[in-house]
Design a protein that fits this description.
Blueprint lengths: L4 H11 L2 E3 L2 H7 L4 E5 H5 L5 E7 L7 H12 L5 H12 L8 E6 L3 E6 L2 E6 L1 H4 L7 H11 L1 H4 L3 H6 L2 H9 L4 E7 L2 E9 L6 H12 L4 E3 L4 H11 L4 E2 L4 H13 L4 E5 L5 H6 L2 E5 L5 H6 L2 E3 L6 H15 L2
Parallel strand pairs: 2-9, 2-11, 9-10, 11-12, 12-13
Antiparallel strand pairs: 1-13, 3-8, 4-5, 5-6, 6-7, 7-8
The structure holds adenosine-5'-diphosphate and magnesium ion.
Adenosine-5'-diphosphate binds next to α3, α5, β5, β6 and β7.
Length: about 325
């Protein structure tokens, strides 16, 4: 017997290094008419490097102490930023203390107890203006309860502390993460990630396939987002998004009648992957949750495989009668 078109398409997708989870998933890929893309780990390599370490003068920490402290809190995290911080600390030969009570908050950062003190590493508005006893947890709670707070712009977040402003200015389009100890800001780290070489061609291909340039949805700061958007020809850029903001953006586009293909890699992307008409996860550095939630997984880590499988699906659907 000849193989049904959608099953042959799944086999072909496999040759492109994409694991499509079902015939229905294969079919839906070809129905999409708009792509929404995550930035970090999707359009970029997802292998950032620490490019700046800035302890606050009052913190009593030098660069190594700040980096070591952040690395200790980040050691259990699977986030690309966490891995970069740990790698940078190891490259400097720093001792990384074993953390306790580790908690990761998707799209925001991490908290842990390091040598008896509570350490937070993450977004400015999450760790800032919380110079209270249990600062970090209070920050998380506040951001969750007041939505406007969670979507506060980078300027607003940076204004609340001089260090943030300096780190942002010095590293213009870098990702800046803030470090607190016992709720008090002690410094910031700047990280930069390289664009995937295939990113501009892939966004152009997705634009050709859908007739609309993809939308960029990222949890990172606006400047880092704009840098990537400019390099990939995208104009609809939404930055500083929390995981729930990414889902809302996808839902909003779908409520407006679009069938959205969402491509992402992180735990923070899982809700958007689930909400989208079709969700594709980048597999190499992808979090387990993203891989489980997605309709398809790009196992070979080639971004060009995404438009390729959309084409395979369209061809297969024409053959299904
Ligand atoms: P993206 O949408 O670009 O993939 P995320 O949603 O994973 O990014 O993260 C958004 C922001 O939250 C990061 O730019 C960073 O400021 C902060 N963040 C998330 N996880 C961590 C972490 N493990 N350590 C430090 N900061 C983090
Ligand atoms: Mg990501």
């Amino acid at each position: 017997a000849t193989m049904p078109p959608l099953l042959s398409a799944i086999a072909n997708a496999g040759r492109h290094g994409v694991l499509v989870k079902s015939a229905v998933a294969m079919e839906r890929l070809g129905e999409i008419d708009l792509a929404a893309l995550d930035k970090t780990g999707t359009l970029t390599e997802g292998a950032p490097e620490v490019t700046g370490v800035r302890p606050l003068p009052d913190s009593g920490l030098d660069e190594d102490a700040l980096l070591g402290l952040a690395a200790a809190a980040e050691l259990p995290s699977e986030h690309p930023l966490a891995r970069a911080i740990v790698t940078a600390a190891r490259a400097r030969g720093l001792r990384i203390a074993r953390a306790e009570d580790f908690t990761a908050v998707p799209g925001r950062g991490v908290t842990a107890t390091v040598e008896g003190r509570s350490v937070g590493v993450g977004r400015a508005e999450t760790v800032h203006s919380d110079a209270t006893v249990d600062g970090w947890s209070a920050g998380v709670g506040r951001a969750e309860t007041t939505h406007s707070d969670a979507t506060a712009g980078p300027a607003e977040a940076a204004d609340s502390d001089a260090t943030a402003g300096r780190a942002d200015a010095a590293d213009s389009d870098a990702t800046v993460v803030h470090v607190t100890r016992d709720g008090v800001p002690v410094g910031a780290l700047a990280l930069t990630d390289r664009l995937r070489p295939a990113a501009p061609a892939t966004t152009a291909d997705l634009t050709a396939l859908t007739g609309t340039a993809p939308v960029l949805l990222t949890g990172d700061n606006a400047r880092a987002a704009v840098r990537v958007a400019e390099a990939t020809g995208l104009t609809d850029v939404r930055a500083e998004l929390l995981p729930e903001d990414k889902v809302n953006a996808v839902r909003e586009l779908q409520d407006a009648g679009r069938k959205v293909l969402f491509v992402g890699d992180g735990v923070n992307d899982a809700p958007a992957l689930a909400a989208a008409h079709s969700g594709v996860a980048m597999g190499r550095a992808g979090s387990d949750l993203a891989l489980e939630t997605a309709d398809a997984v790009v196992v070979r880590d080639e971004l060009t495989a995404v438009p390729a499988v959309v084409r395979l699906s369209r061809t297969a659907r024409r053959l299904v009668v």
